[in-house]
Amino acid sequence: xxxxxxxxxxxxxxxxxxxxxxxxxxxxxxxxxxxxxxxxxxxxxxxxxxxxxxxxxxxxxxxxxxxxxxxxxxxxxxxxxxx
Length: 83
Known about the structure:
Blueprint (H helix, E strand, L loop, with lengths): L11 H14 L3 H16 L14 H18 L7
Helix pairs in contact: 1-2, 1-3, 2-3
């Protein structure tokens, strides 16, 4: 898991990331899928649907999405879920 939640994180994305990491640790795919979608929404909501993100995604976010993908494959044998 990442550096851990200290309680001072002010951005919604940081808090969702922490919850996603906890759900990944517990291998709760249903909760992970919902939190992954919430994290994607939080990260893209300011630019609008046609905006192009120019900032690189921080490593902890990429690592969490990689873990989610591995959990999907381990749990579903590669079948995608729809949330």
